[in-house]
Amino acid sequence: MTYRSIAAPPRRHRFGALATSLAVSLMLTASLAAQAEEAETPSLTGRLAAAAAAGDLDSLASLLSTLPESPDPDPRGPALRAAAEAGKREAVQQLLAAGAPVDYVRDDGETALIAAAAGGHTPVVELLIVSGADVDVRRADGATALSLAVEREDIETVWVLLGEGPEVDLVYRGGKTALMKAAELGNPRIVELLLNAGAKTRAQDEAGVTALMLASASGDAAAVRSILARGGDPRAVDATGRTALHYAAERGADGPSRLLLSRGAAVDATDREGRTPLMLAAAGGHGKAVDMLLTAKADRTLRDTAGRSAAEYAGAAGHAAIAKKLAPAS
């Protein structure tokens, strides 16, 4: 048998392949370096937003001058929201004058007005409103400029927004309205402002809770009084069967409890577990509330669905004196 030797490829072929491989490697390295440099360089949108948030008016003017007539996408919208969030009124004014869309909406539904209200920047809120901002735009979670101002207990911004006639009963987070949030915070001034703007007192959230219940739980008698005066229902029940008096008694809020009873609240109302306001006051160790409910003829002999009395609630919670007071006469 004869064997043939396999000749090596000509040297020029080997060197050619090596050169081609090296060229490809160099091109790839250059491409990656260019991409890295591009990633490290902020986009025009990012630079414009950064200048706006910093209130750097000179940089802002310089960047705005480089924009085409109708940029797409328009970087002025994100910059306006950034300036509003930071409370930079002059930057907001400069961007609006340069044609920034006043109602630009970010992916989560936030606008410049919402951002300004969330940050408590009332002068910016006023400027945006004068420029035509929509006060009823809702963020993805349902929050509005008004609801966020209420959360901050920012009375000045609330007053400014209410002057534009917004939808005061828009719901957000769990079906709550702005009035419910103000009531929950126990802020009678904001409660009064919202009521004057027509907020509904009998609206209920997803759990059936009303503004009156939340005000009662806060312990603020002035808020409770205002809501009752505008039609709040002291006999309304939430999803668990509780009334506003249950909420007040559990908190040991004497003032709200008296107001509720004076407006027809049922002193022995029972929730789905058969618990009365007296039982909740006893469990919380609220002696004054217990005395007030007894004066209002609360029935100390009632038992819940598990067979427990108000005295037993107090005893189980370690309130011996209240348990003794509530014990049936021997």
Largest sheet: none
**What level of helicity do the residues show?**
55-70%
General form: elongated
What is the N-to-C succession of helices and strands? HHHHHHHHHHHHHHHHHHH
Global structural class: mainly alpha
Q: Got a strand count?
A: 0
User: Terminal Cα separation, in Å?
Assistant: 124 Å
Beta fraction: under 5%
Mean pLDDT: 91
Low-confidence stretches: 1-9, 36-40
Q: What's the total helix number?
A: 19
The Rg value, from CA coordinates, equals 33 Å
Helix-strand layout with pairing:
Blueprint: H1 11-40, H2 44-54, H3 57-64, H4 76-86, H5 89-97, H6 112-119, H7 122-130, H8 145-151, H9 155-162, H10 178-185, H11 188-196, H12 211-218, H13 221-229, H14 244-251, H15 254-262, H16 277-283, H17 287-295, H18 310-316, H19 320-326
Helix pairs in contact: 2-3, 2-4, 3-5, 4-5, 4-6, 6-7, 6-8, 7-9, 8-9, 8-10, 9-11, 10-11, 10-12, 11-13, 12-13, 12-14, 13-15, 14-15, 14-16, 16-17, 16-18, 18-19
